[in-house]
Amino acid sequence: MNLDKIIDAIFELPEESKNALKESITKVAYPKGHILLKADKIEPTIYFIKKGIVRAFINQSDKEITFWFGKEGETVISMKSYVDNQNGYENIELLEDCEFYELKKSNLQKLFKKDINIANFGRRFAEKELIKTEERLIHRQFKTASERYSSLLKDSPDLIQRVQLGHIASYLGITQVSLSRIRATIR
Amino acid sequence: MNLDKIIDAIFELPEESKNALKESITKVAYPKGHILLKADKIEPTIYFIKKGIVRAFINQSDKEITFWFGKEGETVISMKSYVDNQNGYENIELLEDCEFYELKKSNLQKLFKKDINIANFGRRFAEKELIKTEERLIHRQFKTASERYSSLLKDSPDLIQRVQLGHIASYLGITQVSLSRIRATIR
DNA sequence: TTCGTTTTTTATCATTTGTAAAATTTTTAT
DNA sequence: ATAAAAATTTTACAAATGATAAAAAACGAA
């Protein structure tokens, strides 16, 4: 997934503003298993996923709970760090070898102050992430685990292929045993 | 809760920008039981709660599920309408007589295009709502119903007084009977 | 107040989900 | 190719939650 496509999907910037933004972005790559973001610290960097898949998890009384998957075109960001300059709660682990576009939060914030188009880009970015998060919340409250698994199968069939079921079960808020039962009844 | 305080809590605007924003805002009041927003339509208005308490709910197979409470200082908005110009999923019901500050989305969007401070105000608004939504999502995934009730008691003791337990139970994702059991074990 | 309605609690039983452990399948490394 | 490790499924039992009905408590209008 190339950078222009990722930027354009958020907000269509005039050429000049887009170039200013792109000047602050560089490419990086890390191997499967790498921890890209660590919880309980202020994270200064934003990543756009060019290639690969990652998961966000927290450690909850000696076990890991996965609460987000990100793949090509999505943004890896500690919202608490980005928005409030506070410690984030997410660890981000790479589930495949990955390539990212990297952007320093400090550079972006400078642009917010002097370029109205980039301020509106930042607004649209937050708004779109907000809608995604709200939909996840509502989905989680209103659907059973079984329905949520079926939706996942339908909306992201590749995820089931690329991510091990233990992580999927955790993401759905159930145990792996329970997910096995659900899969058995569907088949 | 006065308007200046609500605006300032989102983003500290220069006097001129703040006045431009305030020119678009008017006051309205509705009685307890009024439905302020209806699901499955595009909602053109944003409300800031001056006084009172409201709930957001959806109709899910013949019963209502509450998924949000808003009180003084909070914003009543259909995010889907605001962000994507699509039908929202929330109904908003007033649980007390309420007073609001009312702002038309169309006026706000005009200001986004010409005033960088208001564009950044809009960015901060979305960012802060995003953090709140993300925290609700994480809380819901990681805590048991019993823990969520205890947190609610601690963080919003007034809510338990002002809102009937059936709505609280729905908000927590459990039946009212189950909430009664939880309350019985805590006492 | 007092009656009627609504809300909350309690009790019982059915269903779902979790825990633990074993069995099976798949993946990885040599 | 084979052994070891990791992931997934299955089973049995325990714990938590849901559904329903009915009783008790709280609330509101006349």
UniProtKB/TrEMBL annotation, chains A, B:
PROSITE patterns: CNMP_BINDING_3. Pfam families: cNMP_binding. CDD domains: CAP_ED (cd00038). InterPro entries: cNMP-bd_dom, cNMP-bd_dom_sf, RmlC-like_jellyroll. Residues 9-112 form the Cyclic nucleotide-binding domain. It comes from the Bacteria. This is Crp/Fnr family transcriptional regulator. It comes from Arcicella lustrica.
